[in-house]
Specification:
heterodimer, A: about 325 residues, mainly beta, Immunoglobulin-like, five-stranded mixed β-sheet, about 10% helix, B: about 600 residues, six-stranded mixed β-sheet, 6 helices
Chain lengths: ~325, ~600
């Protein structure tokens, strides 16, 4: 019993910073590392993430992340108005090639572009072994949305190594604390604090690479390839779908509908090209109930290659 | 290699276990309730598909084409930015009983798969469009002694063979030769040594060293006693040239002297895997398909100067002209069409002729009268006969697996399609006989009737495994087939419809075509992917008359695989009478170069088809 109470307190405490973030403009002090997996693929890993509020006090949220590197990399969550200082360490064994982070969506000066001098004409904005590089981002008003970040230098200054796994997700929540969603048949503004789970799926070649940001316990769970995404019936959950590589996909989720952001169009499928992204909120199992709701790319060859998974909606408690 | 792979396994397990710590914590009630997602497979090893000769499935960790994992781990197979073409990820063989096998797709695409493997043993993957791309996964049970190959292996055709059978051992040795360029047969060396490392393998419970599959053979070049007429172009498809990332050249041999004349390298154009060639009627231009790419390259025969390099479709494989109008027909191996084009220095597409859904046409044939075009449809187990006047396509199901090349008789009545993986369930290796005007299948010819796949005993002449190019001799009497696994050329008598002779070829025996012998008669020229010689077969004797070198040791710009990758063969003058007739019409009219005029003058009446 005592254990349960303690956990509950922990959960409340963990939720608190989210409230604080929405009220003030925070600075995120982040250290990421680029590493090589034993499979030979590359991946980003969270080393440290602290949030400094307007008063200067710091909260360490590193414990929210998986301890190991993952594909996709750690999901960084900010709020419009926040700033970030992201330091990248080079941890790719047996390599001295530069590795970087190039972010989409948020504002940054040219020295935080994450490219080599041959492209940006300023500097080699990349980490070398023993020489980390720090990028400064501003999630200015108007940058709310789901954005990719990825390497832009490793192995090839034009391409980088996103194809080998060096990519991750940046979620910038709107300062208003609300996002539109189709709930119980109506388009409404829903409070971000009511969103229980963020499901991130990257569509790369013919594989989904997943990550859950669980807002109930504030934990990130790497879900690797074609995972089962789980939620309770009636929970508000947010999907973030991002394309990568060369192929064009059509994301489809069975049994659910949502609105195309910024419009009142109701969808159950949309197109995703390389680095194109979309996010939407649904109420799990709305109107259809619990079940193993299939999600997949609707391009036939991609389905044949196994580009699919389940959205498991379990009965509400 | 073994020690390295073992370290790799240990690392993979560590990662897998540490990621499990999340689940372990989920025993805590609250987390367990909160996290309802179930992670998918995390790859413990990767094979990346590339354009690099030998390393078409490349392990990014140690750069070979083999990964070792433990039962329950997963392998990821994916395209990489190092390939310019689309592929299928297809299992060629796997241990009997492996769950959810085979892996396959209907069409090539930019695919990636992550596959969990539980059954110990050998899994070989290929691409159905480019079927010598090989990658292997060994699922090794740490409790067993030696790397697990398995007890019984299943081939994609449904055939099951004991892992200690001759065919399984052949496939294993071939896998190592294909994926290890240092094991390719270099005729500049006195011997061909296939030295395989001492790695213990577990085959049917017995521990055998991989080195037991090692072998040594002498390399002997031989200049034919009788010269040929004209020249032979060979697509030395794997040759690496300074200043160019992608492999491949076209090598020219003067068959009057048997000397190497020059190589067309396409450096500026990044010529990529040149696979097959055909000339225009004047022999001024040579068209060349770039098989791991999307482009058709045109160069001047005399100077080697490239005049055009244009996109025609996914993985263009072969190119032919129609004799009467000199228009081009390019087989789009990664698609389902043949592209019809204007000829000359700068070909341009006219239209696309559909060959049927998911057909992937490869090595096609046009009848001497220009009436029909026949395509072997690699992914559809069919042959298409297209009436070139109406452009109506008739697709004929043949039951052959990966029909890869076809050629027809001079009278345009019969075509022979080589089925790379045979005609299941009976035939391990086969040719399908097609009635071209009747647009129907007539029969299958067993190319390996005299081979016992278990014991390896060869009791007669019919010994051809994994057949590729299969031209018909200009007199219509024989079909010569290059067999890549058995390293043999089979000779089928078209009257008896059976193999009457097999001749020794090279590892990766692939391209074959006929040319003119001086004084009358014909030679067959044979190129092999993993050797750098050109074999010359005397068609009057049905014997090997010579072996000449395709490598040029004096050319410092060749940085690797000198003379290797022999695939498309283009002997000039053409022996096909329909085409030759058009060239002969131009003779003495100042439309042909002096060397071509000279060649035509040397031809006998019979060679000219008069």
């Amino acid at each position: 019993m005592l254990k349960k109470i303690r956990i509950t307190i922990c959960i409340i405490a963990a939720l608190l910073p989210v409230w604080v973030q929405a009220e003030t403009d925070s600075t995120h002090l982040i250290t990421l590392k680029a590493t090589k997996l034993d499979s030979g693929q590359l991946a980003y890993q969270m080393v440290s993430h602290k949030i400094r509020d307007a008063s200067g006090s710091e909260t360490d949220i590193t414990g929210r992340y998986a301890k190991e590197p993952s594909i996709p990399g750690p999901a960084i969550v900010m709020t419009e108005g926040d700033k970030a200082e992201v330091t990248l360490e080079h941890g790719i064994k047996d390599s001295d090639k530069p590795v970087s982070i190039h972010v989409h969506g948020v504002h940054y000066k040219i020295d935080s572009d994450g490219t080599m001098k041959m492209l940006n004409q300023v500097a080699d904005e990349a980490a070398f072994p023993g020489k980390p590089y720090t990028y400064k981002w501003t999630a200015a008003l108007g940058t709310a949305g789901t954005w990719p970040y990825h390497d832009h230098t490793f192995g090839n200054p034009m391409l980088g190594a996103e194809d080998k796994g060096l990519y991750g997700t940046l979620i910038v929540n709107p300062k208003s604390g609300q996002v539109p969603a189709l709930i119980d048949g109506e388009i409404k503004q829903v409070d971000l604090k009511d969103i229980k789970r963020d499901f991130i799926v990257w569509m790369h070649e013919t594989t989904f690479w997943g990550m859950e940001v669980n807002n109930i316990v504030n934990r990130q769970v790497p879900l690797w390839t074609n995972p089962t995404l789980g939620a309770r019936e009636g929970e508000l959950v947010r999907f973030h779908v991002i394309g990568l590589g060369t192929a064009f996909h059509t994301f489809h989720l069975h049994g659910h509908r949502w609105i195309q952001p910024g419009t009142s169009h109701i969808l159950d499928t949309f197109n995703v090209g390389p680095i194109q992204r979309e996010s939407f909120v649904i109420k799990a199992g709305e109107g259809v109930g619990p079940g193993e709701w299939h999600y997949h790319c609707h391009v036939l060859q991609h389905m044949q290659s196994g580009m699919m998974g389940a959205f498991r909606v379990v009965a509400a408690k | 290699m073994n020690t390295f792979k073992m370290t790799h396994i240990a690392g993979a397990i560590f990662v897998a276990l540490s990621s499990l710590s999340i689940n372990a914590k989920a025993d805590n009630v609250s987390l367990d309730e909160a996290i309802l997602s179930v992670p998918g497979l995390m790859p413990s090893a990767t094979l990346e598909m590339t354009d690099i000769p030998g390393l078409w499935f490349k392990d990014p960790v140690d750069g070979d084409a083999l990964v070792v994992i433990k039962p329950g781990q997963a392998v990821q197979i994916k395209m990489s930015e190092e390939t310019r073409s689309q592929h299928t990820i297809t299992s060629l063989l796997w241990p009997v009983g492996a769950r959810d096998f085979p892996v396959d797709q209907e069409k090539p695409s930019d695919a990636s798969i992550t596959k969990g493997l539980n059954t110990p043993g050998l899994y070989v993957f290929t691409c159905k469009v480019h079927p010598y791309m090989f990658g292997a996964v060994i699922v090794d049970d740490p409790e067993s002694k030696g790397l697990d190959i398995g007890s019984e292996l299943e081939l994609v055709t449904g055939v099951k063979v004991p892992a200690d059978s001759d065919i399984a051992k052949k496939l294993l040795r071939t896998f190592f030769v294909v994926t290890t360029p240092s094991l390719w047969r270099d005729y500049r060396e006195p011997e061909w040594k296939v030295n395989l490392p001492d790695i213990p393998l577990n085959i049917k419970g017995q521990t055998i060293s991989l080195s037991a599959l090692s072998m040594t053979m002498p390399n002997k070049l031989l200049t034919p006693k009788t010269p040929g007429v004209g020249e032979v172009w060979v697509n030395t498809q794997f040759e690496m040239i300074q200043g160019k990332k992608k492999p491949g050249t076209a090598t020219r041999i003067d068959v009057a002297t048997w000397k190497l004349v020059n190589k067309v390298k396409g450096i500026k154009e990044e010529m990529n895997h040149p696979h097959n060639m055909w000339p225009d009627n004047t022999y001024r231009h040579i068209y060349q398909t770039q098989w791991f790419d999307k482009r058709l390259l045109t160069f001047e025969r005399a100077s080697g100067k490239v005049t055009s390099n244009i996109e025609v479709g996914e993985s263009p494989s072969h190119v032919l002209t129609r004799p009467e109008d000199d228009l081009l027909y390019v087989a789009i191996n990664g698609g389902e069409q043949v592209v019809k084009m204007t000829g000359g220095a700068t070909p341009s597409a006219i239209k696309s002729i559909n060959t049927g859904p998911h057909t992937s046409p490869h090595g096609h044939f046009i009848t001497d009268d220009g009436k029909y075009l026949v395509t072997p449809n690699a992914l559809a187990s069919s042959v298409s006969v297209i009436d070139l006047n109406s452009e109506v396509n008739t697709e004929i199901p043949t039951g052959g697996v990966i029909p890869i090349a076809v050629w027809g008789t001079p009278d345009g009545q019969r075509a022979y399609a080589a089925n790379l993986l045979g005609t299941p369930p009976q035939l391990l290796s086969s040719l399908t006989v097609i009635d071209i005007p009747g647009k129907k299948k007539l029969s299958d010819i067993n190319l390996a009737a005299d081979y016992d796949p278990v014991s390896g005993a060869i009791s007669g002449e019919a010994y051809g495994l994994l057949p590729i190019q299969t031209p018909v001799s200009p007199d219509g009497k024989y079909v010569l087939t290059a067999n890549t696994l058995s390293a043999s050329v089979t000779i089928v008598d078209t009257a008896a419809h059976k193999v009457i002779k097999s001749l020794a070829c090279e590892p990766g025996c692939h391209g074959i075509h006929f040319g003119m012998k001086k004084g009358g008669g014909y030679y067959a020229y044979v190129g092999s992917k993993f050797a750098n010689d050109l074999i010359i077969i005397d068609m009057d004797k049905l014997e090997v008359a010579g072996r000449v070198l395709l490598a040029d040791s004096h050319d410092a710009s060749i940085v690797a695989h000198n003379g290797m990758g022999g695939q498309g063969i283009l002997p000039l003058p053409l022996v096909e009478h329909g085409h030759l007739k058009e060239t002969l019409k131009l003779a003495g009219k100042k439309q042909l170069s002096a060397d071509v005029e000279g060649w035509l003058q040397q031809l006998t009446k019979e060679q000219k088809g008069l």
